[in-house]
Each structure stands twice: as C-alpha cells, then as structure tokens.
Amino acid sequence: MHAPILSLSAGLLLCAALAVPAHASDAAAGRKKAGACAVCHGPVGISTAPDAPHLAGQPAIYLERQLRAYRSGTRAHEVMAVIAKPLSDADIANLAAWYASIRVEAQAPD
Questions:
Q1: Which residues contact 23 (CB under 8 A, 6 or more apart)?
Q2: Where are the domains positioned within the chain?
Q3: What's the rounded Cα separation, in Å, for the pair 50 and 92?
Q4: How many other β-carbons are positioned within 10 Å of the β-carbon of residue 92?
Q5: pTM to 2 decimals?
Q6: In 10 A of CB 60, how many CB atoms?
Q7: Residues 32, 101: Cα–Cα separation, whole Å
C-alpha cells in the first residue's frame, strides 16, 4: 500500500522540480529587456506584424522554451535567431515573466 503512494509522491516531486525555472524571474527586468521585441510583437506583447505572434499572456514556460529553441537553432527564424542568440538564461526567464504577467482577455463572438 505504501509503495504506490511513495512512487506517486516521488513522481509528483520530480514533475514539480522540472517545472521550476533554473533562474528566478524578474518581470520588471524583462519589461526593460523587451524593447527589441516591441518592434514586431508590440510594446505590451500584442503583435503589430501579421506574421508575429502575440506574446502577452502566454505561459512563461512556453515562452522560455521557444526562446531557448531560437537561441540554440533548434527552431529556425532569421530574425528570432539573431534576437535570441545573445540572451542569457536569466534574460529569457525575465522576458517570459514579463509577457506572462500581462493579462489578456478574449471574448468569443456571439
């Protein structure tokens, strides 16, 4: 009886540990760093370009993964590769925290 509970507990702890970013994020620092992003993604993460996604309200974990993929080259995009290449892990965490902190509301049409 105790073995399944211990296994489940260990699995949950492992999942929680993997979900925690390596660096504490700072949304205010991310906001300051987001100047280059604003050209295509807008000053508050609402895209101004038809081929650039909205960043506002996206989950931080998603944004971090995408920025790391652009930085490493596993996700290809000419502009994003140049933008992401010099970002540190802390920069990426901060940018993700900033965009994730922006509240976005949507309303489906009637």
A1: 89, 90, 93
A2: 25-101
A3: 24
A4: 26
A5: 0.77
A6: 21
A7: 14
User: Are 71 and 84 contacting, i.e. CB atoms less than 8 angstroms apart?
Assistant: yes
- pLDDT at residue 2, as a whole number: 53
Confidence (pLDDT) at 24:
76
Name the band, by pLDDT with cuts 50, 70 and 90, for residue 21: very low
**Pairwise CA distance, residues 96 & 92, whole Å:** 6
Report the CATH architecture of 25-101: Orthogonal Bundle (1.10)
Give the DSSP H/E element, type plus range, for residue 78.
helix 78-84
In this predicted model, what pLDDT tens digit does every residue of 46-75 receive, in sequence order? 998 999 999 999 999 999 999 999 999 999
